[in-house]
Every structure is written in C-alpha cells, then in structure tokens.
Design a protein that fits this description.
Number of strands: 8
Shape: elongated
Strand content: 25-35%
Distance between the termini: 62 Å
Low-confidence stretches: none
Strand order of the largest sheet: 1-2-8-7-6-5
Number of helices: 7
Mean pLDDT: 89
Radius of gyration: 25 Å
Helix content: 25-40%
Oligomer: single chain
Structural class: alpha+beta
Length: 243
C-alpha cells in the first residue's frame, strides 16, 4: 500500500521464528524472543572470531547501561516503572543475518523482556525508539480492531479488483487516523461532547474509546447533510391537510 516507506513489523513471542526473520530481512522487525535456550553467535573482539553461546546465558550476564522510565497501562490502571536496558549484537548460527537483542528488566516485578531486531542498535536513542515502538503493539491491535469490527468495518468489502481494495484500505486507514488524531488533539470537552453524542451513558464503567467518537462524528455528518438537503429541498409541509 505504501511502497515508499520502510515497514517495521512488531510481534510477540509467537513470531519468534528464524524463517520469518529471513522473510522480513528487507524490512525491519522487532519480535519478542521466546526460545532463550537457542544457540546464538556473538563476536569476540579479543580473539577476533564468532563464538556460540546460549541466548539465556547472555541475557543473564548482560550489562544494563541505561534506565528508562515508562508508564504501563493495564485494566485502566497506570503503573510507572524504571526499566533497565542493555543490548548486544548477535547472529543465528548458519546465517549471515545480523541481529541485535534488547534486554529490558523491570526490577519491581523481577521480569525480563528480550527483543530480537534487525534494526542496527548504534545509539541509546535507537534502542529506546525500538523498545517504545514494540510497546505500541497494544495500540496497533486496538487500531486494527477499530478498522475491522464494529468501527469502520473494512471487512464489508464490496469491490472485486485488487486496485479497488487497495484504495479502500487506504481510505479506511486515513479515516481511522483522522479519528485518533481528533481524540489526541481536540480539547477534552469537545471529545467528551462527541462521546455523549455517540451514546456515552455517563456510567463508571464506560470506555471512552474511538467507537463512541466515530458514532458522534457520524451523527454530526448526518445532521449536516440533512440540514443542507432541507435548505435546498424543504420538506413539503403545505401538502399536508388537517382535519
């Protein structure tokens, strides 16, 4: 759809597969490692050679050189944590594909996250960007559901040609981005007004998501279209009789 842009794929542990890494070599990927028992190769500068190690052993001995403060949201509750970051270059045996591993450790929960990527991690800025991009998975999933299900319903496909499908996908993507942009940039009271217009009930368990905003925008557009039509073709009140 957008061939001029380099794509970055974000995946969970289910996509930790060497064949998939090879297929995505022309693009970028950040995938959570699940096979920590696998053997990988790391470069020994002193001996000037590649040596095999277990990924788990490297993770257990990595040096955390930086700390990043992040906010996690779960079940509408937010938690701030200081995440320790370390990274190293490696490659898988029998393949020349260069990879990097990011190790993120959460001391509060004693939890370690390992990410594998083909994005060159030359600076801490790149490391933070790759880590933060991977944390967008949940938002990407919410956006996909908004495109697919009761939101924009992209699966209600009425065109037959591939070119028509591509155009429709781009229009749906643009519409979804408009809704999310509006939510993030409009004054909160204006967004809340759209929530109520879209059906918000004011209950404590209400979720102020994009679906209500979409319904509110739909109501506004339909009202504007109706008023515009009435201004050109007034309703024929005079044709009614009484009594």
């Amino acid at each position: 759809m957008l061939p001029e842009y380099r794509r970055r794929y974000l995946g969970d542990a289910g996509l930790d597969d060497q064949k998939l890494f090879a297929r995505l070599a022309q693009d970028e990927f950040v995938i959570r490692a699940s096979h920590l028992e696998r053997r990988v190769e790391v470069y020994n500068d002193r001996l000037d050679r590649w040596e095999q190690e277990h990924l788990r052993d490297l993770v257990d001995t990595i040096y955390f050189s930086h700390t990043l403060t992040v906010t996690f949201t779960h079940a509408r509750k937010k938690r701030r944590a200081k995440i320790q970051l370390g990274w190293l270059a490696l490659r898988l045996p029998d393949t020349p594909q260069a990879l990097w591993a990011i190790v993120a450790y959460d001391p509060a929960l004693d939890r370690t996250l390992v990410l594998l990527t083909n994005v060159p991690l030359d600076t801490i800025r790149t490391v933070r960007q790759v880590y933060n991009d991977w944390r967008l998975r949940a938002r990407i999933e919410h956006g996909y559901r908004f495109d697919q299900e009761q939101g924009l319903d992209v699966e209600d496909m009425r065109v037959q040609s591939l070119a028509g499908m591509k155009r429709l996908f781009i229009l749906v993507l643009a519409a979804a981005q408009f809704v999310f942009h509006l939510i993030n940039t409009w004054p909160p009271r204006a967004v809340q007004w759209l929530h109520y217009l879209g059906g918000k009930l004011g209950l404590t368990n209400d979720l102020d998501g994009p679906y209500l905003v979409l319904r509110g925008l739909s109501a506004v557009i339909q009202t504007m279209a109706t008023l515009t039509f009435i201004s050109v073709y007034p309703f024929p009140h005079q044709d009614f009789t009484y009594g």
